[in-house]
Amino acid sequence: MAENGGQRLDVSKEQIEAGRSWSPKMSDVLYIHPPGHLNDLVIPAGAISCMNAVNGASKLGRYAFEVSDEEIQSAKVVAVDLHWGISAPAFLRVTRYVRTKNPRAKIIVGGITAGHLAQELVEKGICDFVVQGDSEVAFSLLVSCCLENKPALGIPNVVQKGAMNPVLARMTQSQFDATDTLTTDWFPTYERFSNLETKAFAVGKTIMVARGCPFRCKTCYGSVAQVFGRGVLVRSPESLVAMVKKAHAKKVENLRLIVGKPSQKVLNSLLKALHDAGPFDFATSVGFYLCSPLTDETLFLLDRTFKNPVVISVVPPEEHEPALSPNKLALEMNAWKRICKVISKTRWLMIDMWANQRDNFERLKGELSSKRVKVSLAAVWQVPRPGAGIPVSFDFLKETYENLWTYFVARLVSPTLARLLAPFGFLDELVTDPFEALQGQTGALGKIASQALSSFAKFSIPMFSDIGIGLFSLSSVGKGHRESCGIKCSGDVKIFRLGEGMVGKYKECDVHRMKQSETYSDILWEARITVEDGQMAVGFVPLFGFLPPTWLLDERDLVSTDGVLALELDPSLQGKTLIVKMFYRLHSLWIFAQGVDGRVVARGKADLQYFTRRKHLSYSRPEPDWQDERFTLES
Q1: How distant, in Å, are the alpha carbons of 13, 175, 404, 433 from that of 460?
Q2: Helix (H) or strand (E) holding 329
Q3: Which of these, 118, 105, 112, lies nearest to 81 by C-alpha position?
Q4: Distances in Å between the alpha carbon of 241 and those of 86, 278, 289, 323, 546?
Q5: Helix residue ranges per DSSP H, 393-478
Q6: What angle do CA 478, 481, 483 make, to 5 degrees?
Q7: How far apart are CA 627 and CA 592, in angstroms?
Q8: I want to staple 604 with a disulfide (CB 3.0 to 4.6 A). Which of 258, 426, 493, 505 is the partner?
Q9: 401 near 86, Cβ under 8 Å?
């Protein structure tokens, strides 16, 4: 059991077996967000604005792990996002399941990756329609046609059979200003969880200040904007103020603004309008994705606009694509160096610079890092994607990221691997170089580290091509631990450190592989066991094709130090036949055992503590060391 951000996430039989604990809701338009991301709770801003553009129809948003068959079967239109390409395998499982349960429903897909692969998705029959580019107006018209059983041919930005190359139309200024990425009352779970705090890639709500970018930087997935058409749309200052006021009124606690790289004139007008309407006081912090260097004047405006920390995320100018001219590069890099130097003079501002190249990462970290400036290795955003200069197909993405989950499950099922793989973090904002951190490993751990680093070098994500989960009997377990190596256990799931005598008796035949399967919502494992006399728990061990099944038990010092993950059993269960089940969801392993009659007799969770309780920040607010009202900062 865990309490996250005031929301109680408990393990119950109903949640484990059905993934939800509420009655189904019927809707005309059902939006399903697939799993398979760095944080499965994050929803693309474009999906929210598209759903908000639909009027006169009942709408419902669900995560794949919670949507019910009844909800799928009742919908006339099912919308699914393929925004980040790493979700391609799970996205395909979701669309196939929808086809099976409701073949009459029209499937509409959107997102940056879907926009680039639109023809392939339609030709393969994965969906009926793909909405490209500025999608809100097109999505609304398309949904109306589907609900009224009218032909949808001729709608700009909609790829479908008979119209594989539609007109790609940009929004007008008034249409873009009218987009709403904040209203999510039609998505109850996201509305509840959008303020959860996370270790990285936080859940939150986003305001699209700009759409499109003149650059195609590897570390910025959103910049792959050819799919939007020519030019960059920027909200009017009045629209931006209205959206921030709306976020403030809705008590949004984690707000992001995607600003891109506007001119100084445009940036100044936006920040001045916000400053004049403020100050705004959010509960925690506000994120600005902004790559235009701020002048002293814009720094002053931004610092005075909010009564809470503001984190500016930036791609270093030397990694912009196409490359800046030498003169422009020198000007911008010097500007950012100055900003990083004087930012301690401000009340609230902080910098998060995302370096793409490892040598740049180490150099910039040495030159710029401080209490207010963090330099991160933005490796995860280098994932292969359409539009980045290499041929990428849907099948390529699906095959590449089929095993994305293996990294997290490896950490969850073994404290030893949790410790070994910890330098990779949650694959976002890396503050250490994994290649340096994992040097010197030998034996079985050396082989595992080598495979993780090989995958990381190729795909920026450490994945394992052949991993399973085995179980074995544990007796005389002693006292179990609730936390070790970053894994936090609850319920009947505990970590047991094995003594020398216990480790020595295990053989390969004592470890049994659990049956693995994948559904539209989860990765599942299952095994039938008969509880032996004296058995106190079921222990779990990761299985690799290149290692013997007992590899972890053979590393005796590791299991005595780090221990093994196990499900503790009541002594009364000895001699009983049980079905042990486990599923991976939201960076956690949910584990339970049930009798042949279906009654749950033991259950619990292993959690990487990705989601944490929201802390409302309370900072002292000293006056900054501004020299004068002409916005000149001390060097």
Answers
A1: 37, 37, 11, 12
A2: helix 326-342
A3: 112
A4: 34, 9, 17, 33, 57
A5: 394-400, 405-413, 415-420, 434-437, 443-459
A6: 170
A7: 63
A8: 493
A9: yes
**Do residues 413 and 606 touch, judged by C-beta distance below 8 A?**
yes
43's tokens: 């929803």
Write out the DSSP string of 6-48: TEEE---HHHHHHS--S-----SEEEEE-S-SSSTT---HHHH
Q: Cα–Cα distances in Å, from 592 out to 10, 417, 493, 584?
A: 13, 22, 9, 12
> Average pLDDT of each block of 10 consecutive residues along the chain (635 residues)?
32 39 81 94 96 97 96 97 93 97 97 91 97 94 97 94 91 96 96 84 91 78 58 94 96 91 94 95 89 91 91 92 93 94 89 87 91 85 63 89 95 97 86 88 95 91 94 86 94 91 78 95 95 93 94 89 95 95 94 95 94 57 40 37
**Longest CA–CA separation in the chain, Å:** 81
- The residue length of the chain stands at 635
User: Any idea which residue has 């500025």 for tokens?
Assistant: 134
Residue given tokens 């095993």 in the structure block: 403
Query: How would you write 177-214 as a 3-class SS string?
Result: HCCCCCCCCCCHHHHHHCCCEECCCCCCEEEECEECCC
Q: 98 — phi, psi (to 5°)?
A: -60, -45
Tokens representing 255 are: 């707000």
Task: Answer yes or no: are the C-beta atoms of 15 and 600 closer than 8 Å.
Answer: no
Contact between 181 and 49 (Cβ < 8 Å): yes
Measured distance CA(200)–CA(469) in Å, rounded = 27
pTM: 0.91
Residue showing tokens 């949640």 = 15
